[in-house]
Design a protein that fits this description.
60% helix, mainly alpha, globular
Length: 173
Amino acid sequence: MHTELLSRWKQLQTSKQALESAIANSTCDAHFQPAAGWSIAQVVEHLIASEGGTLGYMKKKSSGGWDVLDEATAEHHEKSTAINTRLESDERYKAPDVLPEPGNSTSITDLLQKWNALREELEVFLLTIEATHFNKLVFRQPAAGMLTIIHALEFMDAHLRHHLPQIKRIQQS
């Protein structure tokens, strides 16, 4: 894997490990749902849906060949920065309509296994991407628009880290 992707991949994996650690160290039932909000299991299911949708979109978009994809402009880079900055804030946002409302019945063990399998699939996809394609627009984020593979990985990481405080709030409920 190219070093540019590898560093973002490692960061994404580190953030996932931090979330998994927060869950593992919790005495809170993963299916406990506060009056206003999701359970821990629902947060994990949401993250899986988001990452799965991102990977699915990128695979489909790139299936016709990377060379036919449009190149990112300064505007795309600015929108990527803006969405990640937004996710780093303490503000809460409604999940985009493209994502299903998470249920609350799947065990946390099953969810984490599903997430691990998804991450393995993402890693295999990343191994196929050449550095010459890093500036190609391959993913449509609902609020930011089209993004590159680098932007997509940065978004996925910011999105995951955005939900860490939510996990902690649920645990304190």
